Amino acid sequence: MFSTPKDKQTQSVRNSISIKTLTFIGLSAAILPLIFVLLYGSNQINALASKSAESIVDVAWITDKDRALYQSLIQLQRTNSQYLILQEKDILDRFMVQKDELLQLLFDIGNELSHQLLNEKVEQLTQHLTTLSHVLTESPLPSVEQVQINYAQINQLQQEISQLNAELIDNKVTQVQETATNTQGTLLNTLIIIPFSLVAAAIFTLIIAKPLEALSLQIGRLEQGKFDQAIHYSGAQEVLAIGHALEQMRVQLQQLEMQKSSFIRHISHELKTPLAAIREGTELLYDNSVGELNEAQQEVTNIIRSNVSRLQMLIEDLLDFNIVLDSTSLSQLQSIEITSVYQECLEQRKLDCQAKKLITTISGETCQIETNYKQLSVIFDNLLSNAIKYSPESGEITLTIKKHSDKVVMLLSDQGPGISEHNQSKVFDAFYQGPAPDNSAIKSSGLGLTIVKELVRRLQGSIELLNEPRVRGLTVKLTLPLKKD
């Protein structure tokens, strides 16, 4: 897949930005739209609150003026009736004052409420009251029946005005409801910004986290000893710095590993050549092939023979340890049948088994796994070596194979003395030597189980020691993936 100039330019820009800057941009992209929604929503709610408060004030004013108009007309009609009966000047003066107050009230209603029909009714009521006041100041006075007819018309106008006021109140309530509905709809529409904020946050999180996850995977490969694969890195400035440092460390580790591997191979080869000659000569002396040896000479020869065997074992362990250090062999994976590898290791230990009259059995499932043949062979060889070494005469060594989903579990059991709980935490340490088995003159190097544990880890498996409480012996539980990642 080829990168376009635009992709390269985008990656270059991203590489020139620090994690702090990316974090700030990501937070801004996620938070600023939310702040906008919050401020906009707050403004809309404030507008709704102001509209509601204004409507409440208007409704209260209309209600108060309508009640005052009703009460003033009743009071004016009562005063008018008193004047027609008593015809006293004080009553007439009081009537005129009440009429003027009523006219002022009508003026306020007409001036405050911009409603054409309402203004017409107010104007008609004003004219009726003005005409009525003129009639009362002229002579002769009108009859009670005439005044009642006038007040019937006045009351009818008052009722019509009250009806119009009620409609105005309903309109105010409707306006508030419509405003609330519009505000709710607007706020719901602005919430669409929130998913975009979340998407922006997710994008910037991915931009920041993805390079770090890639580096984490490559650090995991370094931990497994895979030094042959170059570390590829991209991202923010800090990620580039870490990636560059890791790549330099990988190169240095690879060089060191190659030097160690080369040194171990060289020194092992140089030691094995003279050792073979010493061993051959020692065997000739020990077998009296070059003449009879006295008892003291025979004892010295036996000491030399034992130490030569131990030295040979150490060299073989060094060669096995070199397999652990050799990361180039990690990539050499193939499909392997477990029992065939185990039987090859048994064949190489056939003489040792026959010397102790040991019985070896294999039970369970036939299983194919994808792994490294050389490393699995070293694991089995070391485990078998310990099992044979600690098994009693005519004992039994059993390998049981069980498959569990994507893993295979192998249980290698012997009938030896087992390992105490105190020593179980130490046996995998390098150069640790536990109690030697009975009748064993040769000590181990203390590297066998250390090599096994490291190889199992590199094969992405696990190893566990199980002491059987009711049965004499030790069971080694070895778990490996059917297919290595």
Automatic annotation (TrEMBL):
Q: Where is the HAMP domain?
A: 206-258
Q: Name one GO cellular component term.
A: membrane
Alphabetically, the GO molecular function entries are:
phosphorelay sensor kinase activity
Extract the InterPro entries matched here: HAMP_dom, HATPase_C_sf, HATPase_dom, His_kinase_dom, HisK_dim/P_dom, HisK_dim/P_sf, Sensor_HK_Regulatory, Sig_transdc_His_kin-like_C
| Class of this enzyme | transferase
Q: Which residues form the signal peptide?
A: none
Describe the reaction catalysed, as an equation.
ATP + protein L-histidine = ADP + protein N-phospho-L-histidine
Q: Where is the Histidine kinase domain?
A: 266-484
Source domain of life is Bacteria
Keywords (A to Z) from UniProt: Coiled coil, Kinase, Membrane, Phosphoprotein, Transferase, Transmembrane, Transmembrane helix, Two-component regulatory system
Q: Membrane-crossing residues?
A: 21-41, 187-209
Q: Is this entry keyworded Kinase?
A: yes
- According to its UniProt record, the EC number is 2.7.13.3
Subcellular location per UniProt equals: Membrane
- Its chief place of residence is membrane
| PROSITE patterns (UniProt xref) | HAMP, HIS_KIN
Coiled coil region boundaries: 147-174
Cross-referenced PANTHER family, in alphabetical order? HISTIDINE KINASE 1 (PTHR43711:SF1), TWO-COMPONENT HISTIDINE KINASE (PTHR43711)
What is this protein identified as?
histidine kinase
Name of the gene: yfhK
